[in-house]
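Quick one: structure tokens for this chain, please?
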Amino acid sequence: VSLTESGGGSVQPGGSLRLSCVASGFDFPPVIVAWFRRSPGKRREGVAAIGADGTVRYAASVKGRFTISKDEATNTLYLQMNNLEPEDSAMYSCAAGWVVTGLLLDPEDYSYYGQGVQVTVSS
């Protein structure tokens, strides 16, 4: 099983980045997918997720600025991040799982995480 992220980098406040995550090796396709982030000294935080029924959920801190989407044909998960703020700086990881009754942004609901990509927002 592999989750491989790309698209991280450094941007100025107000800038945009698009993260990608390619999934491979699953015997059964995951039913929930998400993006999480972690900053030094902080807990892993759920950023955005797509549920089994297509429900999309965002953390309050990114709602209106980030958009999660997926392309099932290519097994790719995306996170479009606009109007980035210094507080968005973190290591971003994609995640996959099979819990259909969870909160979608709970790290405990996910079985696999990618290695992550760094996003740095500074002037």
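The first strand starts at residue 2 and ends at 6.
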